[in-house]
Amino acid sequence: MAVRAPSRDAVRLAEMIREADSTVVLTGAGISVPSGIPDFRSPGTGLWEKVDPMEVAHIDVFRNEPDRFWLFYGQRFAVLGDKQPNRAHEVVAELEQRGLVDAVITQNIDRLHRRAGSERVVEVHGSIDECVCLDCGGRVGLERVMKLMDAHPGAPECEACISPLKPNVVLFGELLPEEALNDAYAYASNADLLIAIGSSLEVYPVASLPRVTLEAGGHIAIVTQGDTPYDREAEVKLGGDVVAELEAVLAALDS
Q1: pTM of the complete model
Q2: Protein fold of 39-82+127-169
Q3: pLDDT at residue 215 greater than cutoff 90
Q4: Range from 77-86, 99-108, 128-137 carrying the lowest mean pLDDT
Q5: Where in the chain is the domain with CATH 3.30.1600.10?
Q6: Which CATH class, in words, describes the domain spanning 1-37+85-125+176-255?
Q7: Sheet holding 236-238: strands in order across?
Q8: The one catalytic residue among 58, 125, 152, 219
Q9: Is 219 tagged catalytic?
């Protein structure tokens, strides 16, 4: 089968990556959809079309009804736990390994960037990799948490103080972790090029990062299906399948 030549926009994005002294990637749920993880807002399939996040994923629900909270989050952990990186994650990791990407800022909690080989990953919404005890500060890895849930229905408990464990992710009603947010703003302000991949760029404060890059004199590119508030300000907008688009950019870099 003949390989389709990269589009003009894919070639232009490859040129921008070559020319930039500092490129940062910002990713949202769309980059993980090819791994079998539904995004949040797509009509008909988005996660929040099926449930009200304020009823299942709010910090108050965890504090007041941890068993009900974990009825939802336990299913989410089970879905995410065995997912594998897709080719889009791998292309991003390869760009970092080539020295063409400085860091990945991700809104995703699925840890797939790290599993794909990316090393400088800023997880602004946390990660499913572990749970924390809000009472004693204990930390428990995902695999152990899943075993606790298999052994006992309801909220998994800290084995040190028997308090409910909380996923080490940012829930509704919580602030983003200060250190991660500061790192994200630092990368965005220093970037000559910020590439937003698979994000609607609607959820703040992360949605302000492209503006930070623009105001610092950098450029932005967008690789995502659907409209974003930054489409008119992007130097390049690739709106097709995220894997195909990133493969095309990589092919253009290699040509």
Answers
A1: 0.89
A2: SIR2/SIRT2 'Small Domain' (3.30.1600)
A3: yes
A4: 77-86
A5: 39-82+127-169
A6: alpha beta
A7: 121-123, 103-106, 23-27, 193-197, 219-223, 236-238
A8: 125
A9: no
